[in-house]
Amino acid sequence: MSERDTVHKEMEKLSDDLTQAMKKIKLLDSNNQELQEEKRGLNYQLESLRREIASALHERDKALKECNDLREKFGDLGANSGDGRSLLGDQTKKSRGRLIDSLGALGDGQGCKEHMREDARSMGQRQRLDNLDQANQELESLRKSLDKAQTELAEAVQEPRYPKGEGTGRSAKGTR
Predict the structure, then answer these.
(1) What is the pLDDT, as a whole number, of residue 176?
(2) Is 109 part of any domain?
(3) CB neighbours of 116 closer than 8 A, spacing ≥ 6?
(4) According to the model, what pLDDT value does residue 106 have?
(5) Are 120 and 94 in contact (CB under 8 A)?
(6) SS3 137
(7) Contact 71, 78 (CB under 8 A)
(8) Is residue 164 one of the residues assigned to a domain?
(9) If we measure between CA atoms, which residue out of 12, 154, 173 comes closest to residue 146?
(10) Is 7 a member of any domain?
(11) What is the reported pLDDT for 165?
(12) Which of 25, 31, 89, 139 could cross-link 67 (Cys pair, CB 3.0–4.6 Å)?
């Protein structure tokens, strides 16, 4: 009988193990479903952000094209400021190059030169960002002036073509 009892105990133990394994499987399945739902939501957000980025890039390209068109149209106004910026940019590049060369001569290690080059690259990136900010500001001011000009044009079109006294006099004679 003892052998029979041990078999029953083993069967109960295996049954308990099976029950625990089934509970664990259900728990893992529910966690998996939650993660799948979260993944779907994140994929939706990702796609939404991609569309938003594409739209923003399209708007930026459109604005840059408009800015370039306005620069071509009103080139005389922006030519002086553009030349000044390019000269300033050339001078900063030259001075940055001299600084890197002089610091490279002071330091014997190759790592120092590499560090200086990386700093120069980051300075260049900052300068590009500054130039981009300036371009965005210029674009915004051009947009404002365009809006102002369009408003003035619309107001000018809405004004009567004849002076008030003449226009009302003619209509009054025609109705009598």
Answers:
(1) 42
(2) no
(3) 100, 103, 104
(4) 47
(5) no
(6) helix
(7) yes
(8) no
(9) 154
(10) yes
(11) 55
(12) 139
